[in-house]
Amino acid sequence: MKKILVFIFLFSMAYSIHAQTKYTDSLKALLAVTAKPIERFDLLNKIYDKNDATQGLYQDTALGIQIHRLAQQINNDSLLAISTNVIGNYFRSKGDFPMALEYFFKAIPLAEKAKDKRRISSVYFDIAECYFGLQNLESCFKYAKKGEDNLPDKTSPMYDNMVIQFYRTMGRYYLEKKQPDSALVYIHELEEVNRRLKKSNYAGYGFTQSGTAYALLGDNEMAELYFKKASALSDSIGTPVIIINNSVGYIPYLLRTNQIAKARQYTLRLLETGNRLNNNVIKLTAAGFLNTVCNNLHQSDSAYFYLSMQSALKDSVFSQNNFNKIQALAFNEEIRKIDEEARQKQKEEQRKQNIQFALIAFGIITFIVLFLLFSRSVVANERLISFFGVLGLLIVFEFMNLLIHPWLASFTHESPVLMLLALVLIASLLIPLHHRLEKWIKEKMTEKNKAIRLAAAKKTIEKLGREENS
Question: Residue 406: which residues within 8 A CB-CB, separation 6 or more?
Fold first, then answer.
């Protein structure tokens, strides 16, 4: 029965891969007849995403170069975030985590400018995977949670593609921490999402992580079942991402259960894959396993050879220079975040200040309008006009001072003498203008006041005349 279920699963995976291959071929056909850069970028990006199911990180280098070149040509933040993410994944596929992290940290601000949550979460999950490869589990957890915080909305068509990466990383994290119960929670979530996505690489992650979790729980029967599913998938598809995932999870179990010959077979295939990809991290892992295998087989010369290989590769992957560079990159990212928060706070303060300026301007306009309206119906003497004129002048002067003060402070480098001279100059321009306006208003107001008094007198005379006649 178990064999039948495995066969059915492999058949469904093969059918899904065949459908994906046909779709990729149709995208390549469209690419061959498309000239517009933005359309070519979109097609190449779709091909890259579709290849993820079977190839993962280990995609054609030329594809990533084309994507990056087009993004640079179009010069769009969203596209540059995608291409920078792709280049980072290229370096991660080579085991060059410092370079990968450098590109990933460059991609984050670009994705943030574009407000692309799908890309922001993707980059954070890739950073978490880099730290997992560097055996820095706390940083792995930290950036995985940042990726979770930036997931697109659940209604987004890309939500499943992003959240499944979170479940994969958290499953690996808890397995490495030897907490299989916690790991199984995320593994089951991964399997649930992949029922909809039907991606072979995530099916492989689910099988291998389940096998590892049950092995840690001491349930070797369940562990064997899942590892055999992962191995069958690896053998049927045979792409590097699936071979590596299966081998890294299965070999420790084979060694623990004393299946040394089988462990040697899988380890040699892992080493061959690492050599083919020129990935020092994979070669380091394989060398460590082969050292253990040869010790178990009492092959001391071979064990020493692989121990020496492991030591040399470890120096390459975990050198102090790499460690310092990675620390500097993480520090720079933290500083960038702090600076960005400060800029956002400054923008908010500026927005509040702009609202206040707008209210002041509205108040001035309202004051002038009301003054002119009331002046048509109210008898005002020259003292009152002078008082409101001076008040208006002060309001206008202070309002202008508020508006130009930041620019003036920058221009004069906050020199008190220069700022005072500038303000005096502004006042010297406003005062003559104010006197002219005040004179004009007084004349107009006097004429209006006379007209108002005359109209009032006429009404009084007419009223008295009517009373006398009556």
Answer: none
The C-alpha atoms of residue 38 and residue 43 are separated, in whole angstroms, by 9
What pTM did the predictor assign?
Answer: 0.69
3-state per-residue secondary structure call for the chain: CHHHHHHHHHHHHHHHHHHHHHHHHHHHHHHHCCCCHHHHHHHHHHHHHHHHHHHCCCCCHHHHHHHHHHHHHHCCHHHHHHHHHHHHHHHHHCCCHHHHHHHHHHHHHHHHHCCCHHHHHHHHHHHHHHHHHCCCHHHHHHHHHHHHHCCCCCCCCCHHHHHHHHHHHHHHHHHHCCCHHHHHHHHHHHHHHHHHHCCHHHHHHHHHHHHHHHHHCCCHHHHHHHHHHHHHHHHHHCCHHHHHHHHHHHHHHHHHCCCHHHHHHHHHHHHHHHHHHCCHHHHHHHHHHHHHHHHHCCCHHHHHHHHHHHHHHHHHHCCHHHHHHHHHHHHHHHHHHHHHHHHHHHHHHHHHHHHHHHHHHHHHHHHHHHHHHHHCCCCCCHHHHHHHHHHHHHHHHHHHHHHHHHHHHHHHCCCHHHHHHHHHHHHHHHHHHHHHHHHHHHHHHHHHHHHHHHHHHHHHHHHHHHHHHC
Contact between residue 67 and residue 86 where contact means Cβ atoms under 8 Å apart:
yes
Express each pLDDT in 172-194 by its tens digit.
Answer: 999 999 999 999 999 999 999 99
Q: How far apart are CA 71 and CA 57, in angstroms?
A: 19
What gap in Å lies between CA 362 and CA 183, rounded to an integer? 61
Kindly compute the dihedral angle of the four CA atoms of residues 136, 139, 143, 149, in this order, to the nearest 10 degrees: 130
Close Cβ partners of 156 (under 8 Å, ≥ 6 residues apart): 117, 118
Token pair of 217 as six digits = 């729980």
The sign of the dihedral angle between the CA atoms of 59, 174, 116, 16 is positive
360-395 residue pLDDT tens: 666 766 666 565 555 554 545 556 556 666 666 566
Place of tokens 């649930």: 192
Of the candidates 138, 139, 143, 110, the residue with the CA atom closest to the CA atom of residue 124: 143
